Amino acid sequence: MLLAWVAAAEAHRPGMSYARVTAEELRLTIAEPELVGRVPLGADIDASRVLVAELLLPGTHVRVDGVECDRGDPTLGRVEGDGILLTVPLECPVGALSYTPGFLDQMDPGHRHIVDQGGEPVAVVDRPGQVVALEGAAAPGQVALRFGELGVEHIWTGYDHLLFLAGLLLTATSLRAMLWVVTGFTVAHSITLTGAALGWIALPSAVVEPAIAASIVYVGIENLWRPSPRRRAVVTFLLGLVHGFGFAGLLAELGLPKSGLLTALVSFNLGVEVGQAAVVALLLPLLLRLRRGPWFDARVVPVASVCVALAGLYWLVERVFG
After folding, report:
1. Among the four residues 6, 53, 147, 166, which has the most C-beta atoms within 10 Å?
2. Where are the alpha helices (DSSP H) in the chain?
3. Structural domain boundaries of the chain?
């Protein structure tokens, strides 16, 4: 039961309120009728922010091992129907969370407060002072392991990224040239992945995903003209920047934790590199061995490059029109 759905479907029912609690944020949703007569709620919702915070937050605690989490400035807004949403940024240390709502004694008898974590209701609070035990922020080692695994998994299942890389390696005539290609791709996507994940730069997925497909088409076609190693290194770097936005898009869907953000980001990027290195380690010996045959450049490279371009074209059409 997601909080946004709960707020839309349930906020109009008097006698109920909702909380989503994480180590980074406390979100309280309550029906406006529950607040009538207690605080003024005019058209200017922000004017009531302090008054609502004074009603809901005193006596409300989010703690780790008895230590109160640091609070940021609360913000107030409306949700669909007649719901009021109060959002409070939190900074909690590593450990199990405990949550205590401090406003139930001010609500009408029979008021129920549903506590949500991770998209699922975990407790119903119906009496003042009741404490709810919750999962807390993950330890740095757990964050690193989780996001590292996600990075490896993403590159191994990111067939567009792998095909792009394979297309680049097809025309590399030496181990040194192949390493330049891999390094350029790595450096480039690391730059945009980091910048986008930290919010410094942004591109919508509606632009990024077709652009990744177009980069595959470009590489497949360019292979037919046998680009020079220097030109290929430059092209690899520029197109690798686009692929970095694709990696960042996945991270945005996963949700980088506010606590341990740097650990998660670095671990995900390292996971991508480990997964990529494993694939390259399998491809390099095979390509270098095949390149010894005179038929490789004459037959295999053109046919494989056309297949790469066609696959990219399929993805491009699919992502633009479907």
Report:
1. 147
2. 3-10, 49-56, 140-157, 159-170, 175-197, 205-223, 229-254, 261-290, 294-295, 301-321
3. 3-136, 140-321
Give percent of the chain above pLDDT 90.
21
Q: What is the mean pLDDT of the chain?
A: 82
pLDDT (0 to 100) of residue 229: 80
Alpha-carbon dihedral sign for residues 169, 171, 174, 177: negative
pTM: 0.61
Contact 165, 185 (CB under 8 A): yes
Query: Residue 173's Cα: distance from chain center in Å?
Result: 38
What would the two tokens of residue 303 be? 């046919």
Give the SS3 label for residue 25.
Answer: strand
Percent of the chain with pLDDT over 70: 84
Asked if residue 192 lies in contact with residue 241, where contact means CB atoms within 8 angstroms, the answer is yes
Q: CA–CA separation, 117 vs 294, rounded Å? A: 61
Give the chain's end-to-end CA distance (angstroms, integer).
29
